[in-house]
């Protein structure tokens, strides 16, 4: 069966895990892994028989066979890469917090973004909590939504650590834009416990219509939808409703494609990006066929 | 011989905020700051209990916007340094900028004891806008002296003015404090501070242990007002330090009067060591979990002690108040009433 060819920029942990996910996909085919310096990640790709390059964004932009690009570099690098990729006609999954394109959470707004060429994947905490925030808001009308994302210290890379404010600010904004709350707040906690904790996310929402039955149904529906692209997504504490406050806790266990299962935070953002890419690829294949 | 100077950092209006469920008003802050400033406290900390932007469902909403409180403090402070607390992951540089506009002169950047690198950007930013910046390691009972040295050096390297070690769970015994402060004293050249909790009735003893190993900044609160069983009681600590021959720069009768006449009337419950706060110290649980645990135990019909023990087992860190609900829910499912 014909597949859509993919390039990845940034052969770090995120890029490597994406590569394994793309290799499992029924619509996507790994074409090129690009970095800017020799690295473990590039060697890993080469060992798997995948073409590699040290020319970074230029290599990906210059390959006409590549239709979809995952940019797993940094916000700063993506600001540089985005116009180059756009000019080359590529569809881009932006894994950084640069937010050049629209925020996307597959089960929330992917269907509304059919013409976009740059998809911002928000943050790991955003991918884990916005579906729940959205599910609560659609039946109960959220005035305020707040999330606490707890991740294991081992799964927080140097980029996250150096720019932790970016996490709180980007997640907050996306909770408002996609989650639908009038106001939102995001908190992130790093926990060094051994063995490492699974990513755990608490969603609190202050709502106008605290209808218990509707909230539970809506949350259960969205959890099933997220599970269709993130199998390790699980409701730990189903909606607890006290007055107009709703509390939900979800856990994300990673798929273990390249990263350990406790890195559910890295897994969910990658699974979401691949889900978006697969949908676009399916559409491209449909048109071509 | 000149007496050794110990700087008292009064955090009644920050850690004490937990004990009043973040309900401080502009008038209360104005009066407490006036009193503390007048008697010679070196640094006065004003923030939500969980630091800037801590006002939330998870930690409790501030009754009065903390920026209003900081501004009120800034208006009356003359000699002390107005200080704020910032926990990266909760507060941001934007919040710090706003605090500075409202009069904050120093910031303490607090991270879990193993995660100092998430505070580098905040320390560097504070120094770039001419603020005093303190690297603050929380839950230090959970790490070895060696690990603490490694993490403190991250703060030293990015420009921190002193390093504060917090016994956030009120778990340490005096020898635990000595081991950590002395290891740090040998490894770094900047001053060291200590933040005690009184869950095992050792807050003053542990503070003195820190001073004998070379700490020169001590956190304290009037009447001990603070999370869990509270902090080192400022007026008591000052009396003990004076007896030991240290110079705190504080008028002892003055701080006693501030505690009795200004702080005590605004307290909502006596600052005592009851079973639950004793359990915090015994099980090594973050002190500000206390009042949230009471709420969850009521909702899920559980004994607070069972919730606290499980939180300790799971090695929850500061800021994970949401896990109280998780633990309470799981326990209620097991029928452990």
Explain what the structure shows:
The complex is a heterodimer of chains A (289) and B (337). Chain A is of the alpha/beta class and 289 residues long. Chain A has 2 domains: 4-121 and 268-288, 3-Layer(aba) Sandwich (Rossmann fold); 124-261, Dihydrodipicolinate Reductase, domain 2. Chain A has 10 helices and 12 strands. Chain A has helices at 13-24, 40-47, 56-61, 75-87, 106-109, 124-140, 158-162, 164-177, 212-229, 264-288, and strands at 4-9, 28-34, 51-53, 66-71, 91-94, 102-103, 118-120, 142-152, 183-191, 199-207, 233-242, 245-252. In chain A, strands 3-2-1-4-5-7-6 form a 7-stranded parallel sheet, with helices on both faces. In chain A, helix 1 (13-24) packs across helix 10, helix 6 (124-140) packs parallel to helix 8 (164-177) and helix 6 runs antiparallel to helix 9 (212-229). The mean pLDDT of chain A is 95. Chain B is an alpha/beta fold. Chain B has 2 domains: 7-266, Aldolase class I (TIM Barrel, Alpha-Beta Barrel); 288-333, Helicase, Ruva Protein, domain 3. Helix content of chain B is 44%, strand content 13%. Chain B has helices at 15-19, 26-39, 66-76, 93-101, 120-128, 145-157, 174-187, 203-212, 234-243, 252-263, 275-283, 289-299, 304-313, 322-333; strands at residues 7-13, 43-46, 81-86, 106-112, 132-138, 162-166, 192-195, 217-220. Chain B has an 8-stranded parallel beta barrel, surrounded by 8 helices. In chain B, helix 3 links the parallel strand 2 and strand 3. In chain B, helix 2 (26-39) runs parallel beside helix 3 and helix 7 (174-187) packs parallel to helix 8 (203-212). Chain B is globular and about 65 Å long. In chain B, 61% of the residues are buried. The model of chain B has no long low-confidence stretch (mean pLDDT 96). Chains A and B meet through strand 8, helix 7, helix 8, strand 9 and strand 10 of A and helix 14 of B.
């Amino acid at each position: 069966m014909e597949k859509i060819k993919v390039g990845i920029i940034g052969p770090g942990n995120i890029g490597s895990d994406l590569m394994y996910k793309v290799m499992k996909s029924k619509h996507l085919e790994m074409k090129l892994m690009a970095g800017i310096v020799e690295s473990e990640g590039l060697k890993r790709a080469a060992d798997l028989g995948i073409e590699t390059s040290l020319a970074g964004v230029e290599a990906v932009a210059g390959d006409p066979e590549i239709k979809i690009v995952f940019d797993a570099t940094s916000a700063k690098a993506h600001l540089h890469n985005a116009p180059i990729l756009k000019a080359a006609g590529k569809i881009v999954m932006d894994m950084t917090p640069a937010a050049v394109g629209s925020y996307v959470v597959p089960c929330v707004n992917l269907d509304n973004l059919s013409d976009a060429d740059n998809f911002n994947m928000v943050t790991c905490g955003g991918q884990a909590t916005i579906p729940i925030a959205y599910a609560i808001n659609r039946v109960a009308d959220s005035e305020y939504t707040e999330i606490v994302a707890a991740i294991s210290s081992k799964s927080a890379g140097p980029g996250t650590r150096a720019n932790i404010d970016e996490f709180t600010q980007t997640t907050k904004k996306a909770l408002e834009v996609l989650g639908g709350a009038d106001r939102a707040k995001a908190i992130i906690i790093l926990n060094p416990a051994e063995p490492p904790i699974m990513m755990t996310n608490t969603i609190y929402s202050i709502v106008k219509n605290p209808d218990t039955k509707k909230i539970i149904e809506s949350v259960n529906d969205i959890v099933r939808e997220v599970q269709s692209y993130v199998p390790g997504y699980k409701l730990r504490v189903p909606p607890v409703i006290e007055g107009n406050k709703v509390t939900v806790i979800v856990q994300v266990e990673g798929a273990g494609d390249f990263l350990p299962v406790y890195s559910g935070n890295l897994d969910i953002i990658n699974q979401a990006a691949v889900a978006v890419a697969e949908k676009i690829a399916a559409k491209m294949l449909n048109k071509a066929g | 011989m000149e007496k050794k100077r110990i700087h008292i950092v009064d955090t009644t209006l920050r850690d004490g905020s937990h004990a009043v469920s973040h309900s401080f008003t502009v008038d209360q802050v104005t009066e407490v700051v006036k009193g503390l400033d007048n008697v010679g406290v070196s640094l006065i900390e004003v923030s939500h209990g969980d630091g800037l932007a801590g006002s939330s469902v998870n930690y409790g909403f501030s009754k009065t916007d903390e920026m209003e409180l900081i501004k009120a403090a800034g208006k009356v402070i003359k000699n002390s340094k107005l200080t704020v607390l910032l926990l990266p992951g909760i507060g941001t540089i934007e919040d710090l900028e706003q605090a500075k506009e409202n009069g904050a002169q120093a910031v303490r950047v607090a991270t879990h004891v193993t995660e100092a690198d998430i505070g580098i950007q905040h320390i560097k930013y504070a120094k770039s806008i001419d603020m005093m910046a303190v690297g603050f390691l929380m839950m230090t009972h959970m790490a070895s002296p060696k690990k603490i040295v490694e993490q403190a050096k991250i703060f030293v390297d990015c420009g921190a003015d002193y390093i504060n070690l917090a016994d956030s769970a009120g778990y340490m015994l005096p020898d635990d404090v000595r081991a950590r402060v002395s290891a740090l004293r040998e490894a770094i050249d900047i001053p060291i501070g200590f933040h005690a909790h009184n869950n095992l009735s050792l807050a003053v003893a542990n503070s003195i242990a820190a001073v004998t190993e070379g700490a020169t900044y001590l956190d304290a609160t009037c009447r001990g007002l603070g999370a869990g069983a509270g902090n080192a009681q400022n007026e008591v600590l000052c009396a003990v330090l004076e007896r030991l021959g240290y110079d705190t720069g504080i008028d002892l009768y003055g701080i006693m009067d501030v505690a009795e006449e200004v702080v005590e009337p605004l307290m909502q419950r006596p600052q005592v060591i009851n079973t639950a706060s004793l359990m915090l110290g015994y099980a090594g649980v973050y002190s500000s979990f206390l009042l949230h645990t009471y709420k969850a135990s009521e909702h899920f019909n559980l004994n607070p002690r069972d919730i606290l023990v499980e939180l300790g087992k799971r090695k929850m860190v500061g800021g994970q108040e949401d896990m109280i609900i998780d633990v309470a829910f799981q326990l209620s499912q097991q029928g452990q009433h």
